[in-house]
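The following record pairs a protein chain with its ligand, zinc ion.
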Amino acid sequence: MNNSTLTKNPGPSGFIQIGETEFIIVDYGQVIKDGLVIGKIYDDGFMQVKGNTIGNHRNNFFIDLISNLSFRGQDSFGLSLELPEKIKAPSGDLYYDGKLFKVVNGRICSSEHNYLGIFDDLGDIYLRCPKSRRNSVKLDENSLLNFKFTGQHHDGEKFNYDYTKTLNRPNRSYIENEIIRYFEDYDSLTSIQKKYVNENLTLWAACGILQTVRKSEGNCAFGDIRHGASGVTGVRTGNVTLDKGEFETEIKLFFHEGPLCNLMVLSNPNHIETRVNMVVSHEFGHQLEFVLNQKAQNRIAELYKTRFEKSQKLFPYPSGYDGRSEIITRNQFQDRIFYSGYSKQSSEEFFAESIAAFSVEKTRLDLKTFDFELYSLIEQIVTDSSQMLRSVLSDSINDLQLSLSIADIYKENLI
Ligand SMILES: [Zn+2]
């Protein structure tokens, strides 16, 4: 993810021009005059120099403060950089999904003095994207998060600007809003039910995939399901329907047993079925598979096939069992092939169960040692989403994740 590189901010390289004729070399942020380091300049134009060395009595200031000072070169990431920007733009405080940034003549500056992009007089935001080497990615209704700006225009006139995403609640975070939008009856849930839904979906909201899947496939709601299943995902509609009674059972199992447990098989009492107790992210997993590109889908089918064949060889269905899950005896638990027994049902269930297991830390770490190949595939969906999703979604997921990384939602330690 690109946030680790953002916090590593060695500073820009190029030169500072003073007036018409004087030039000072800048090397990775070090300001060098007559062979001596006299100070530091950051990507966002913040400078720390020894008093009076560049004709200014202050030690800490933004480059804009001195009228005959400018910088030209590249920022820490090799993107071209000219400071100050030659635009007339506002200055003030920007709260982006609640996170505070300083805006200096339009430049959005982080507390580490990274230069993130431009906030202009119209209230539009353009971000710099080191990953795709774009200097100016305009955020739109897909990629913008809720924000609030207080400050003034370049001419000093007061300028306050609020942006709330369509159907979002202004006082809630992006992750909360996305979960509320996805889970139709969220407001009517008890606090323990909400906690369960949040556990299932927070990771997928944070990487922007929940929003992408919801827009492409649909949301999730309670409804009537015929054959006693916990949930179904409509192949035609893309919507998820959850059974309320079964939802309660899943929640009880989750909070009493944890995300993974073993249940006795009724028809074969000396056998167990390992179970992932995450119905919301399981059904979400079915929706997610629909938005993956063909290559990723083929890879899933391939992983499933090799595991199914192995499981059939080692753990064939015992007599008296008419299901399709992988069932084992208690002492075979460590040797099982599928992380959950239900994964053996089909390639689709295998993927949905894997997404469910990946959703919370406990089973995610467990899955990493249990089946690294499978873990890596899902990790790639989170960290390299544009390569895994359908190509029509690449740009929108890239821009959304750029926006989320600025707000520290899509971040390095997410998984
Ligand atoms: Zn399923």
